[in-house]
């Protein structure tokens, strides 16, 4: 379906839970099982949508991108969303 409509297929997974419950261990296990590298993206370093797009573009295809503790970055996300009018 995705190929037919010209949209790249991507899968996003949100892991939520208290510290120490195995979220990072699960990410490492998935990475190992799929033989893919893990790229950590720190949202507090991202100031606008262009920087976010550049950060994602800098990761080779078919790798794992981890945005740790997204909930702690809500001010950054809110600022970026309100400044651009959209969040893509």
TrEMBL record:
<dbReference type="InterPro" id="IPR003959">
    <property type="entry name" value="ATPase_AAA_core"/>
</dbReference>
<feature type="domain" description="ATPase AAA-type core">
    <location>
        <begin position="13"/>
        <end position="75"/>
    </location>
</feature>
<protein>
    <recommendedName>
        <fullName>ATPase AAA-type core domain-containing protein</fullName>
    </recommendedName>
</protein>
<dbReference type="GO" id="GO:0016887">
    <property type="term" value="F:ATP hydrolysis activity"/>
</dbReference>
<dbReference type="Pfam" id="PF00004">
    <property type="entry name" value="AAA"/>
</dbReference>
<dbReference type="InterPro" id="IPR027417">
    <property type="entry name" value="P-loop_NTPase"/>
</dbReference>
<dbReference type="GO" id="GO:0005524">
    <property type="term" value="F:ATP binding"/>
</dbReference>
<dbReference type="InterPro" id="IPR050747">
    <property type="entry name" value="Mitochondrial_chaperone_BCS1"/>
</dbReference>
């Amino acid at each position: 379906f995705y190929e037919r409509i010209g949209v790249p297929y991507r899968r996003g997974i949100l892991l939520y839970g208290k510290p120490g419950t195995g979220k990072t261990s699960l990410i490492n296990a998935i990475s190992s099982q799929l033989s893919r590298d893990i790229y950590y993206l720190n949202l507090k370093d991202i100031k606008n949508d262009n920087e976010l797009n550049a950060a994602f573009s800098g990761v080779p295809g078919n790798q794992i991108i981890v945005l740790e503790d997204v909930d702690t970055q809500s001010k950054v996300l809110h600022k970026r969303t309100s400044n651009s009018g959209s969040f893509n």
